[in-house]
Design goal:
Layout (H helix, E strand, L loop, with lengths): L1 H19 L1 E2 L12 E6 L4 E6 L6 H14 L8 E3 L3 H14 L2
Parallel strand pairs: 2-4
Antiparallel strand pairs: 1-3, 2-3
Length: 101
């Protein structure tokens, strides 16, 4: 019974991640859900929609400082470019998502 509950919690967490951190490449270029902002990540600059609550977290603030140093504050694409690999960004946002649960 404990294993079944653990699996249900893990499944719920995965669903929450997929809804809160979803790729918006198929959406209109300027369209981001209320309470989110656009982030471009990796060499291919994949676009993600990220909850604004992540802005409070020190790890995400560190990433923002790196983005400012590398790309500056004037970013013309309508979203924030961050200087990290997609895998690292997904790992960070997964951790942040779990900390806000």
């Amino acid at each position: 019974m404990g294993i079944k509950s653990k699996m249900m919690i893990q499944g719920k967490t995965i669903l929450q991640r997929s809804f809160s951190l979803r790729r918006v490449a198929n959406e209109e270029e300027g369209s981001v859900s209320k309470g989110h902002f656009a982030v471009y990540v990796g060499e291919n600059e994949k676009r993600f929609s990220v909850p604004i609550t992540y802005l409070k977290h020190p790890s995400f603030q560190s990433l923002l400082k790196e983005a400012e140093e590398e790309f500056g504050l004037d970013q013309p694409r309508g979203g924030l470019r961050v200087p990290c690999k997609e895998e690292a960004f997904l790992r960070l946002t997964s951790q942040l998502n779990c900390s806000f649960c």
